[in-house]
DNA sequence: GGGCATGAT
DNA sequence: GGATCATGCCC
């Protein structure tokens, strides 16, 4: 349809390397009615518009909002001794992420310093404590994860039709192509039908676009940047100069319909960013361009609180002087290999290298890199399920673990965190289930080793189940060695999926006794599921521990307890549980309790291979006031 | 499927 | 550098 056949490079790059812009020869494709009127061209759409939006100094902003601090005050977020986030006011004092806290305070006496939330011994939930200590505490990033979700939700509200891909905790890609197309057609109705006298029918080129008033709040990358230094200078004298120079030069470059599309996307992006700002208090920066790669790149053109637009016509001069190792995926070993191979540093330097040569040197990656250098990126913005595929809790140990048996302590801490987080995630996805648990450990300098094991489906997700699995993996890892030097441990769930997506798992789930009638009828209808979710899954962890106790003296009535055939223990509903509001709730809760207890045995069976004494929680239930939740897994000393 | 390496924020 | 995530390669 378009002049070059996009899937074949030979026609795109006809071996010429002389004239500079031959390297960028697809930047002004002919756009026809067919292009405009098709909504399924995906990455080949010449009107494609993608944005990358990220939060400015996200962790710092989270803390600033949480504490109700004036956003203009300099603030840093601390993780142990290092700064992990520095807000923009603080950066004005010359504080960078690599700075030491001492120096930062020196540079800015009124600096607000916030340490990330941590798990602390004796406390059930992560919190913000004084005098955190890496020997006894464990960092929790949960608050940021939650805030991140809120932002994504605002994105979705503002963009019911567009695709949104969460790229990290503070970034998301947005495909504006289709929403923009709709607006384009509404705003320029004459484009909606092919004129009768169109020479090539639907394949006729669109009429010239109107002049564009670029959104006032957007920065547009100039086609001919100032001759001085690089354009990524933070707020230098670019204002007046670029306007004179740029405006004049750019008027030479006629706007295209793609430029119109970019400007509409900018309007939408601005609205969404404004919603995030007013509803949640976070400022964001965004990049808007023809694909993900370029959107990501321009997003950092001006920060903070700014969105930048990269017109196709501006791509060559923007890309050529760029240090290619700043490009996504070229920041690591591959980029370094390329740099060493050719002893060059900018994108422009690499444009003279032929595809064939790159392929000989770098194999499969070559084609992809070759295109990236030319501003081409065929990767799609793909909506990811709102929940992650893995869940990891990790700890670097300030003082290495020497005795193999000392590993249990941290494993239990990590297991408790995972239990908390997964049970929490199940409030919104009741059937969320990890396929495996993985334990990573690094001994001394060696690279980390890992072991994994299948994880049983358990609705009753207890710390014991996770920790015993972890303990078993720990043994496999450290073996019989007495003297070890473990400097870091990570415990993770992988293959996290909600049961309604897979078939094997859905079967497993519904085979759980007595669950069928309650869950199966409602694929989309919510009420039943909602009740199940709130009553059964909420706090499944602490409840289970409490319920297993023998000393439960409250009621021994058959309506609030039962005796397990398997272990002979009597199981009681917890007094504290908010389920005894009416008879119905109690019956159901008892049912649930029975099931959960079965699940418990099931899981115990599966993890029996361990020669570890299976610590039945009932055994150590002598203590009257056990701390709840994660608290009891910290050693009291 | 398990273990590992790489890359990103 | 620490804590998380994802993906792709190899057996």
Automatic annotation (TrEMBL):
GO molecular function, one term: DNA-directed DNA polymerase activity
Disordered: region residues: 225-256, 603-637
Domain UBZ3-type: 557-609
GO BP: any one term: DNA repair
Residue stretches making up the UmuC domain: 50-331
Pfam families, per the entry: IMS, IMS_C, POLH-Rev1_HhH
Compartment list: Nucleus
InterPro entries (UniProt xref): DNA/RNA_pol_sf (IPR043502), DNA_pol_Y-fam_lit_finger_sf (IPR036775), DNA_pol_Y-fam_little_finger (IPR017961), DNA_polymerase_eta (IPR052230), Rev_trsase/Diguanyl_cyclase (IPR043128), UBZ3 (IPR041298), UmuC (IPR001126)
Record keywords, A-Z: DNA damage, DNA repair, Metal-binding, Nucleus, Transferase, Zinc, Zinc-finger
GO cellular component, one term: replication fork
Tree of life domain: Eukaryota
Name this polypeptide is given: DNA polymerase eta
Organism: Piloderma croceum (strain F 1598)
Lineage of origin: Eukaryota, Fungi, Dikarya, Basidiomycota, Agaricomycotina
């Amino acid at each position: 349809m378009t002049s070059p056949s996009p899937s074949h490079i030979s026609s795109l790059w006809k071996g010429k390397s002389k004239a500079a812009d031959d390297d960028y020869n697809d930047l002004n494709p002919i756009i026809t009615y067919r292009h405009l009127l098709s909504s399924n061209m995906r990455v080949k759409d010449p009107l494609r518009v993608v944005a990358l939006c990220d939060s400015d100094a996200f962790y710092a902003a989270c803390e600033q909002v949480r504490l109700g601090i004036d956003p203009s005050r300099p603030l840093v977020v601390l993780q142990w001794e290092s700064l992990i986030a520095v807000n923009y006011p603080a950066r004005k004092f010359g504080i960078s992420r690599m700075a030491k806290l001492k120096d930062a305070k020196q540079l800015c006496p009124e600096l607000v310093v916030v340490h990330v939330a941590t798990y602390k011994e004796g406390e059930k939930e992560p919190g913000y404590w004084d005098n955190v200590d890496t020997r006894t505490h464990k960092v929790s990033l949960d608050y940021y994860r939650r805030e991140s979700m809120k932002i994504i939700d605002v994105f979705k509200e503002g963009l019911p039709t567009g695709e949104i891909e969460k790229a990290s905790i503070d970034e998301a890609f947005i495909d504006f192509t289709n929403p923009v197309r709709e607006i384009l057609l509404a705003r320029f109705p004459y484009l909606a039908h092919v004129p009768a006298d169109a020479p090539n029918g639907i394949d006729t080129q669109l009429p010239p676009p109107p002049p564009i008033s670029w959104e006032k709040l957007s920065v547009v990358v100039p086609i001919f940047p100032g001759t001085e230094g690089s354009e990524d200078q933070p707020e230098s004298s670019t204002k007046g100069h670029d306007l004179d120079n740029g405006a004049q030069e750019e008027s030479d470059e006629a706007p295209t319909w793609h430029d119109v599309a970019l400007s509409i996307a900018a309007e939408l992006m601005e609205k969404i960013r404004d919603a995030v700002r007013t509803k949640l208090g976070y400022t964001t920066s965004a990049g808007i361009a023809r694909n993900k790669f370029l959107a990501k790149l321009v997003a950092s053109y001006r920060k903070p609180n700014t969105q930048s637009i990269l017109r196709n016509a501006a791509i060559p001069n923007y890309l050529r002087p760029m240090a290619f190792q700043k490009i996504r995926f070229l920041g690591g070993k591959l980029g370094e290999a390329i740099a060493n191979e050719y002893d060059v540093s900018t994108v422009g330097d690499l444009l003279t290298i032929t595809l064939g040569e790159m392929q000989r040197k770098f194999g499969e990656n070559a084609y992809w890199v070759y295109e990236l250098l030319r501003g081409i990126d065929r990767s799609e913005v793909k909506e990811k399920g709102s929940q992650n595929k893995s869940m990891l809790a990790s700890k670097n140990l300030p003082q290495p673990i020497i005795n193999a048996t000392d590993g249990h302590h941290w494993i239990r801490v990590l297991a408790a965190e995972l239990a908390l987080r997964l049970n929490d995630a199940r409030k919104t996805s009741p059937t969320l289930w990890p396929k495996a648990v993985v334990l990573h450990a690094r001994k001394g300098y060696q690279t980390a080793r890992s072991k994994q094991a299948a994880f049983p489906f358990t609705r009753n997700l207890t710390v014991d189940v996770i920790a015993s699995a972890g303990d078993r993996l720990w043994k496999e890892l450290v073996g019989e060695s007495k003297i070890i030097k473990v400097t870091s441990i990570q415990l993770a769930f992988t293959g996290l999926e909600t049961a309604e997506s897979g078939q094997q798992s859905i079967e497993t789930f519904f085979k759980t006794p007595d669950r069928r009638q309650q869950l199966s009828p409602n694929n989309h209808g919510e009420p039943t599921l909602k009740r199940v979710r709130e009553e059964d899954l909420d706090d499944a962890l602490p409840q289970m521990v409490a319920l297993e106790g023998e000393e439960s003296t409250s009621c021994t009535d058959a309506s609030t307890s039962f005796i397990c055939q398997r272990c002979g223990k009597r199981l009681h509903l917890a007094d504290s549980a908010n389920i005894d509001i009416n008879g119905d709730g109690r019956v159901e809760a008892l049912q649930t309790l029975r099931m959960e207890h079965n699940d418990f045995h099931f899981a115990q069976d599966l993890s029996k291979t361990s020669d570890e004494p299976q610590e039945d929680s009932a055994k150590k239930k002598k203590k009257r006031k056990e701390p709840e939740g994660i608290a009891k897994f910290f050693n009291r000393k």
